[in-house]
Amino acid sequence: AVVFDNTEFRVVNSRTQQEAYVFAPATLSNIYYGFLAVNSRFNASGDGVAQLGRSLDVDANTNGQVVIRDSAINEGFNTVKPWGDAVISNRPFAGNTGSVDDSDEIQRNLNDTNYNRMWEYNNRGVGSKVVAEAKK
Q: Which domain holds residue 86?
């Protein structure tokens, strides 16, 4: 596991408007901890084309893990699709938004290998946006 605390991440793609990524983890599926960025700043040049990350699926045993929380994300990031499809396998990104139980609590298994393990929590800034709600 790696923790980035109070770190500035910069994505510079000033010559092109192609996608660029901050993280590309290749975390083994049975490992419950990966990258954590907390109290950090994510700055990207360009017009909303940068993405926070994508999994590096080198084989069937990898499912990258990243959590970005309590951080500022600027307008250079893609709010519609903040996480990209996996490298190598081209597996589409699928977030686990969970489901609501009988007590109206959201339940989800954060290590469910049917989903990517890439999360945002309590972030701020134009590039930070909740893109899905839990299923009812």
A: 1-128
Residue 133 lies in a domain: no
Q: For residues 19 and 133, what is the distance between their CA atoms, to the nearest angstrom?
A: 25
Contact 107, 136 (CB under 8 A): no
Based on the structure, what is the number of domains in the chain?
1
pTM of the model: 0.84
* Residue at 135 is within a domain: no
Classified as helix, coil or strand, 69 is strand
Cβ neighbours of residue 125 closer than 8 Å, sequence gap 6 or more: 42, 72, 73, 74, 75
Mean pLDDT value across residues 48-72: 91
